[in-house]
Write a structure and sequence with these properties.
mainly alpha, 302 residues, 0% strand, globular
Amino acid sequence: MKTKLWSALIALYVIWGSTYLAIRFCVETLPPFLHAAIRFLISGALIYGWRRAAGDAKPTAAHWKSAAIVGTILLVGGNGLVAMAEKQIESGIAALIVSTSPFWFVLFESLRAGGTKPNWQSILGLIIGFGGVSLLLGPQHSGGASHPFHLPSVLLLMIAPMLWAAGSIYAKGASLPKSTILSTAMQMLTGGLSLLVVSLVLGEFSGFQVSEVSARSWGGLLYLITFGSLIGFVSYGWLLHNAPISLVSTYAYVNPVIAVFLGWMLAEEKLNARIAFASCIIVGSVILINYARQIPVRKKAR
C-alpha cells in the first residue's frame, strides 16, 4: 500500500508539474482556448463514459447546471487564461504565479458566509507570498515585449488562480453528484464547451489551418489529454481517498518547482538567481498557508 501511495504521489508531482510545459508547446501553433476545449471535451467524455459504465447515477439537471458554472469558472478562467498567457510567458514562471492560488483560497474563504477566518500563520504566508511574487515580477521585469515577463500576460496569470479559487469554493456548496470523478468529468465537458464558445468569439478559427499545427503541439495536446487529465486526475482522486490530505496538498508547492526545472531543461527557459530566490519564497509561503489551514483540523482531532 505504501509503495502504491508514493507511486501515485510521484506521478501526480511529475505529471501536473509538466503540464505547464505541455501547454506552452501546444500554444506554439494551436489557439489557446481551442486547444483547451479539445483537451477537456475529449477527457471529459472519456471519464464520463467510464464512470457511467461503472455504475455512477445519472446526473440531474441541477447537477449539470452547477457543473457548468464550476467548469466554466475553473477551465475558462483557471486554464484558458493560463494557456493564453503562455504565448508570452515561460512555462516555469507561469507555474510559479499560478501556485499563488492558496492565497486566494484563504482570502475568499474568509469572505464566504460561515467561512474560516485566517489565523496569523495564514496572514504571514500571504504577506510572504505576495512579497515573493513582487520580487519575481519587479518593476524592471514587467515591461517590454522582448522580456519574458509580459505585463498583460502577468495580469492574466494573476487572475487565473483567483478564478480557480473562487470556482473551487463555489463548488463546495453546489449541487453536484456524490461521485467526485463523475462531477469533474461533467465540469470538463461543460467547461470544454465554454472554452469552445470563447474560442469562436475571439476568432481563433479565423485563418486557423490544421496543416500548420506542429508535431510538438500535437504531442503536447496528446500528453495533456492522456497524462494531464486522465492519469493525473485518476491519481489525484485515488490519493484523496487513500492518503492524508496534508500529504496530497504538497503537490501545490512541488509542481511549480518541477515546472521551472523542466522548462529550463527541455525548453531553454531562464533560471537565474532572482527566479530561484523568488521561487523559494513563493513555495515557502504556500507551505506555510497549507500548514496553517490544517491547524484547526488537528485541534478538533484532539
